[in-house]
Amino acid sequence: MHIVILVLVEVLIVIGLSRLVGLAFRSIKQPLVIGEIVAGIMLGPSLFGLVAPHLAVTLFPPETFPFLNVLSQVGLIFFMFLIGLELNPKYLGGQLEVAVLTSHVSILVPFSLGTLLAVILYPLVSNASVSFTAFALFLGAAMSITAFPVLARIITENNLQGTRLGTLALTCAAVDDVTAWCLLAVAIAVA
Prior knowledge:
79% of the residues lie in helices and 0% in strands. By secondary structure, it is an all-alpha fold. Helix 6 packs across helix 7 (132-144) and helix 7 packs antiparallel against helix 9 (164-190). The longest helix is centred in the middle third of the chain and has 30 residues, at 96-125. The mean pLDDT is 86.
């Protein structure tokens, strides 16, 4: 029973701080979700664990991580499901080709830059057990993947999910992610 209460307290802390920091970011004309991401960094090992490690372990002991992970995944699944329900395909009428082309073109720049970065990083962070091709593919694909849920939150926060622009942006991001994840699968297969 103790762990259930601790997880509920952790959820309240996460939601409370996320809301406060999100509202602070909104006051400076930034999306709520950016403030929520900053709140997550503040509560994580990057800041809270660095500044007050004993308090961080007391409030967020490792045995609660699996529960928080499941809750976060369920919340993300429900959010993405609701975004899918609100996505209006009538706004894509004749624009699916534009969305696919736009999304694939938007992958080219980060993928190319990631591959070029691999030339510099490969000797510094890799070893002979990983081929350069696999390393370059992985880095290029990792640079190409969008933060689809973050974009969806920004679009819904601005109430654009039912508009032609919002639908097109979400479709482009979805195609972009599918393509980039496929590139990542190829990189893993090559490795």
